[in-house]
């Protein structure tokens, strides 16, 4: 009796033990796409093509299956979604869009002209690398102005605190007379105008 109960307990434990790669319903779980970046993904696709893999085999190996639309061409929306999963945090949506459309164009050009697809993919990778470099240069160029803007936004508060510590009592002047109140209103208006102006400048520059 005890042996039968032990065998039943072992069978239930084995049945309840989670199977690797499956969810509780027994359906194979989707393998997460590694976040290796657009350049590395394109380099892997090009390497697979150079190693002799076919177009769909190379693309599906690194981007997953189901990339074609009803016409048999690359579905840009599906490719964009797969690339968005593997992009790095600093890579923008515009870069993902360019790579997705570039891969579709590379496949079409290779199919129409008969040129090696690996070279076309390498051209897409080089274009994405130039776009990444341009984005890094732009971000570095506006890093100092952005820091200066944040410093200037906090400067009025620092001045008021230092004035109180030095005994000048700027708060008493601002709130103790109509002249001070007028200066406070003018100062707040100039401050708000400066904030709006600087934010528009930074937004127009794309930072």
From TrEMBL:
What does UniProt give as the signal peptide span?
1-21
Annotated membrane-spanning segments are 140-163, 175-198
Which keywords does this chain's UniProt record carry? Membrane, Signal, Transmembrane, Transmembrane helix
Name of protein:
Type II secretion system protein
Question: Which organism does this sequence originate in?
Answer: Bifidobacterium cuniculi
